[in-house]
Write a structure and sequence with these properties.
The protein has 232 residues and is an alpha+beta fold. It contains 2 helices and 11 strands, in the order αβββββαββββββ.
Amino acid sequence: MQKLLGNRKLVISIFVVLILVATMVALGPLFYSIYMGRGVQTKPVDAAHTKPASTDVDGTWNVVAGTPHNFTSVGFTINEVLPAEKTTTSGSTKNVTGQAVIKDGKVEEGTITVDMTTLTTDKKVRDQNMKDKLFITRQFPEATFNLTEPADISAVPDDGSVAKVELTGDLTIKDKTKKVTQEFDVVRDGETIVMGGNILVNRLDYGIETPEMIAAKIEKEGEVNIRVTLQK
């Protein structure tokens, strides 16, 4: 009898453990999503509040903070694969500097420098892991984009509406540089020019390895999200 009771207790214990495991598998992604959140993403160009251009397009333009609707921001977006679903996580920073030289309606020079040490998502723990394990910002505090081919923006309207412009340049992250070409939204807004776009990247090209995680793995493909406001 005691042996039978012991076997029944063992079966019940195993059954309870299986229920707990199944519950964790089912609800784990939900708890992970609630705890981690989707982060802070650099938004696209907002043309809903722009004004007609009030200055000539040629000249030397510097990256500025921008307006509440089109503030300067650069960041990243990655996909995390969980046991039962895929989630998207973003981080960004407003600490961006840069300059563009436009002559005869063509961008002849252009640079953007991003302070990677100030990247933020929406969770302090994730921020620290991102800086220490993904981008290693103590060793690589900056990321840059340098235009390598002239870009014609003469067709960008002066009425505050958006046009598409293809930009080609060198993207450097963690001291690894790759040539990229991406279509950007460009709008002339009063005394400013706003440019925004998402550069598709393979994180392995930049030495960004998946940190040790139990619940999630990072996909190879991701985005560098850019929106900058420039003013003379």
